[in-house]
Design a protein that fits this description.
Elements (H helix, E strand, L loop, with lengths): L1 H27 L20 H24 L6 H9 L3 H16 L3 H22 L2 H12 L8 H16 L6 H30 L4 E3 L10 H13 L6 E3 L3 H10 L3 H12 L11 H17 L5 H6 L7 H32 L11 H13 L3 H4 L5 H16 L2 E4 L11 E6 L5 E8 L11 E6 L2 E3 L2 E3 L1 E6 L15 H19 L18 H11 L1 H7 L11 H9 L5 H19 L9 H12 L15 H4 L11 H19 L5 H13 L5 H9 L6 H6 L4
Parallel strand pairs: 5-9
Antiparallel strand pairs: 1-2, 3-4, 4-5, 6-9, 7-8
Helix pairs in contact: 2-3, 2-4, 2-5, 5-8, 6-7, 8-12, 10-15, 14-15, 14-22, 17-18, 17-20, 18-19, 18-26, 19-25, 22-23, 26-27
Amino acid sequence: MKKLLFLLVIVGLAVACQNQKSDNNTMENPFFKEWTTPFEVPPFDEIKLEHYVPAVKEGIAQQEAEIQAIVDNKEVPTFENTIFALDVSGSLLNKVTGVFYPLNSANTNEEMQVIAREISALTTKHSDNISLNPDLFKKVKAVYEKRNDLELDAEQLRVTEKFYQDFERNGANLPEDKQEVLRKLNEELSQLGLSFGENLLAETNKNFKLVVDNKEGLAGLPEDVVLRAAEAAKKVEEDGKWVFTLAKPSMLPFLTFAENRELREKLYRGYFMRGDNGNENDNKEIIKKVVKFRDERAKLLGFNNHAEYVIDVNMAKTPQNVYDFLEKLWVPALEMAKNDVKEMQAIIDAEGGNFKLASWDWWYYAEKLRKAKFDLDEAEVKPYFTLDNAKKGIFYVVNELYGLKFIKRNDMPTYHEEAEVYEVQEADGTHLGVLYMDFHPRDGKRVGAWSTSFRPAHYVDGVRVPRVGSIVMNFTRPAGNTPALLSFDEVSTFFHEFGHALHGLFADGPYRRTAGVVQRDFVELPSQIMENWAADPEVIEVYAKHYETGETIPDELIEKLDRSGKFNQGFITGEYVAASLLDLDYHTIENPVIEDVRAFEKEAMDKLGLIEEFIPRYRSTYFAHIFSGGGYYSAGYYVYIWAAVLDTDAFNAFKETGDLFNPELAAKFRTLLTKCGSDEGMNVYLNFRGKEPSIDPLLEKRGLK
């Protein structure tokens, strides 16, 4: 008996020690504490990789308990005890994933990618457990079916309808055996999306670099481009040489200015063969599986294909509407591109070049053609567009429109030493939110540019919690004593992502599910409209200052920039539309079993009549918008140009008043950004504009009409 008591005491002490150890780990995990940082931004300096998975598991456990409480509630289902309770559930899980996923895109490593796989599996299963919970769906359906008798306000009615739609679209009405199939498809697609992104990151940042070991290979390159290439060489122990990478700030200047055609081809092939090299990072087998599984999922849910499933809740409504819309752009863009080919080939012939224009020649000869037509040299323009100048231009525009102020803060933790932090204030000094800005490419950051949030604006007990947002870019770095000199395309990208940030900062609504949440083909309106201010001569002269002299960009250069705005639009619009149609072809496929990805892509482009002198903006194996991560833009890459119709029309509203910063219109557009989640996209737009948008202003802007 004494021996048994002794053993029980020992076991009890061991359990107590284990519990104490667990409690200590919990106390050390920043996600389990209140954040005392300014404005409660994430304490990046305290968060370690080992903190994520335990916090995700605890977040899942907490939300499971919250969901079970909704299910177990014996009262009649109401908006408050069902819809609202569902909307506010999962706060800890949102807190953790709100930090993890943005950092996995902007600052990842191999260990973090392993964690991403575990977290993705956990959260995918958890999401399915909610969407496919029959008892929860019964409660939601009960409220939905009597929604018109509950005296709900417009916001309550919309969030009720959106939650019900979510359950339907995620398989709640399927029989149990088909729900199990759906779960497996979702899990497979989640992991495949991660693999695609990891492969692309390796192919872009690790598996290729162009090393130039003699000055002859640098002929034609601007001095700042050469300086950056020398610095890049030092970082990879190629001292005394010059390294060019597949990051666009490195690649595009080389393609635009390098006289050595053989090197241009080598670099561009490295770019357009990413994920298609038959190595461990090849993405073709992943694409085959993704297309097949998406098609199977769509058919399970009652749609003919994945594109029908996606576009059904978009403004466009059907894939055929998208095809018809893109055709209106493709035909004139292709014709313009063919004319440009003739003019560029004439330059090649006049220079004695004994070759036919190829895709790796396009940027080089387009720059020559632009200079010949408009007497405009990009190297002459770039000194006026430093990163700091572009930032000042954005702050100027946003202040003129909305009165916002941006105060740089050095007292907040950041996730990387290059990330800058700004407090955003209203004109009266009221705190609106926090914005991180991360500008330059590096290992561990995926390609492209994007806007995200560490914490979306939301309400807790009726009090608004402001947004902590982030915009991430891959812009040209400084070189030596030369600051970061941006191409105008980079300047436009900066304004674009800032528009997304404003959307997130302004978005307001009582419910997480609907606040700021819009249809996919509406989501680029807030971003793309900002590009119009970036390019307007009235605005350019405010922020474009020479980095050495401080002089304002001359009117003559502004006029040249303005006149050349329609130049090369056959290529710019054409390569984009080609990629959009490739996306649609993948997701309207009748036979989802693709034998050969290259052959499928070629057939799609041949059907279009794509000329061999350029390729779609994204070939399949690096089309991250549609195949990486959650594939947010799958069957939806078209949305950028769909929204371009809206943004051009909306900016015209300002121009029609004679005041680019018309305060009445600015207030109306801010209302659009603030309340856009409260209604369907076209209704929101009509409230701002008073009429439906026309495609004509976009065609005229691009010279396609």
